[in-house]
Amino acid sequence: MAGSADILTALRELSNLKQITREELHGLLQDGIHAALAKKHGANVQAEVEIDEARGEIRIVLLKTVVDEVTDESREVTVEEARFMDPEFQVGDVMEIPVDFMEFGRTAVQAAKQRIIQRVREGERTRIRDEFAGRVGDLLSGEVQQIERGKLVVMLNKFREAEAIIPYREQNHREHYHQGEPVRAVLKRVEDTPKGPRLILSRSDALFVQALFKLEVPEIQQGIVEIKAAAREVGSRTKIAVTSRDEAVDPVGACVGLKGARVQAVVNELGGERIDIVPWSPDPERFAKLALAPARVARVFSDAASRTIQAVVDEDQLSLAIGRNGQNVRLASELTGWKIDLYSSREWLEKGGEAPLFAPLPEETEEADVPLNEIEGLETATVAVLAEAGYRTLNDILDLDRDDLLRLPGIAPEEADRIMAIIDELTTEDDGDGSRGA
């Protein structure tokens, strides 16, 4: 059986392992010894416990009050018994009875050990709760420790004591992980359980996409660019709305990065999931038009009471605005927080909309110069390459020929051909009926 010196050696190791101070451990050991004494001598036992770590000794002394008649054996002793040890004892004196640590027996030592372990765990739970309570939305990394009934149990790299899981519903079901593989996820919430705090991580929530952009975009880390809203259908498409506190910083361009490098890094982590980055606006009507990108919206009308937007698009834009299985309008609605009802120009007129609806608005008379990121068919990376070369709108590239495009780094011959085809299609539409592509 371990002696007090062995116990103190174990305490030193525990102090290093659990990052607990010696003073805290001494207090835990003293509490444990008192618990063991109470189990052996009675609940009201009184004792002094002194720990001399330098000498490797633990001194334990029971304290019993000398009385004429004992009513509590755990803390009292008769005068006759006391005088058997020392004839000078009088009623009211306190008799000190040394206790050999080894006398506790296996059960008593185990009680002390359990008390220490319990207190250490309580301390760990408090530290975990304090560490992560304010970190919801942060990106955490670790490795898959095990897979239980569909959920991933994750051992975090920087806080291995914390219990962290990715529930089945918080996973991207196009991804498959195995034990020991590295994994990154966003902290969605902290749950209290009987065993302590549990960290619920997610790779399916829109928070995960926001956390990845924060990692890749320094302007977001610095607070210059802010993600105001996000909507996601995991494994398929995400929309985020961004704004800038500095007029000199383009929030969309900052998130896209040079030659699309930043957004591509996020796309790669998401397994190729499509990402739409749109400017945020405090005006719900303008925000709805932006959120429906890449579709071009002719008019929008809002009803603040019902938080409903009616959006009208040209016939050739309707399927793009709706998206596959309604995905685009559904995500736009989630992004804006408003219900969006879509109408084609024909449907709107049949519904009783005014004929001048599709006449050019004063603020749109100069909108023939379309931003490149609103043109359907232009990849995000291509838009980034063109922007780097100073071409940001349709008018900027109208006079370019194929050779001009090939001189740009990152533009392959087939991409140059595709850009020229898009320009031809848009300019042909402009000449024909005055509409523009998106």
From TrEMBL:
<dbReference type="Pfam" id="PF08529">
    <property type="entry name" value="NusA_N"/>
</dbReference>
<dbReference type="InterPro" id="IPR058582">
    <property type="entry name" value="KH_NusA_2nd"/>
</dbReference>
<dbReference type="InterPro" id="IPR030842">
    <property type="entry name" value="TF_NusA_bacterial"/>
</dbReference>
<dbReference type="InterPro" id="IPR010995">
    <property type="entry name" value="DNA_repair_Rad51/TF_NusA_a-hlx"/>
</dbReference>
<keyword id="KW-0805">Transcription regulation</keyword>
<dbReference type="InterPro" id="IPR003029">
    <property type="entry name" value="S1_domain"/>
</dbReference>
<dbReference type="InterPro" id="IPR009019">
    <property type="entry name" value="KH_sf_prok-type"/>
</dbReference>
<dbReference type="GO" id="GO:0000166">
    <property type="term" value="F:nucleotide binding"/>
</dbReference>
<comment type="similarity">
    <text>Belongs to the NusA family.</text>
</comment>
<keyword id="KW-0806">Transcription termination</keyword>
<dbReference type="GO" id="GO:0006353">
    <property type="term" value="P:DNA-templated transcription termination"/>
</dbReference>
<dbReference type="InterPro" id="IPR015946">
    <property type="entry name" value="KH_dom-like_a/b"/>
</dbReference>
<keyword id="KW-0804">Transcription</keyword>
<feature type="domain" description="S1 motif">
    <location>
        <begin position="137"/>
        <end position="204"/>
    </location>
</feature>
<dbReference type="InterPro" id="IPR013735">
    <property type="entry name" value="TF_NusA_N"/>
</dbReference>
<dbReference type="GO" id="GO:0031564">
    <property type="term" value="P:transcription antitermination"/>
</dbReference>
<comment type="function">
    <text>Participates in both transcription termination and antitermination.</text>
</comment>
<keyword id="KW-0694">RNA-binding</keyword>
<dbReference type="InterPro" id="IPR012340">
    <property type="entry name" value="NA-bd_OB-fold"/>
</dbReference>
<keyword id="KW-0889">Transcription antitermination</keyword>
<dbReference type="InterPro" id="IPR036555">
    <property type="entry name" value="NusA_N_sf"/>
</dbReference>
<dbReference type="Pfam" id="PF14520">
    <property type="entry name" value="HHH_5"/>
</dbReference>
<dbReference type="InterPro" id="IPR010213">
    <property type="entry name" value="TF_NusA"/>
</dbReference>
<comment type="subunit">
    <text>Monomer. Binds directly to the core enzyme of the DNA-dependent RNA polymerase and to nascent RNA.</text>
</comment>
<dbReference type="GO" id="GO:0003700">
    <property type="term" value="F:DNA-binding transcription factor activity"/>
</dbReference>
<keyword id="KW-0963">Cytoplasm</keyword>
<protein>
    <recommendedName>
        <fullName>Transcription termination/antitermination protein NusA</fullName>
    </recommendedName>
</protein>
<dbReference type="InterPro" id="IPR025249">
    <property type="entry name" value="TF_NusA_KH_1st"/>
</dbReference>
<dbReference type="Pfam" id="PF26594">
    <property type="entry name" value="KH_NusA_2nd"/>
</dbReference>
<dbReference type="GO" id="GO:0003723">
    <property type="term" value="F:RNA binding"/>
</dbReference>
<dbReference type="InterPro" id="IPR004087">
    <property type="entry name" value="KH_dom"/>
</dbReference>
<dbReference type="Pfam" id="PF13184">
    <property type="entry name" value="KH_NusA_1st"/>
</dbReference>
<dbReference type="GO" id="GO:0005829">
    <property type="term" value="C:cytosol"/>
</dbReference>
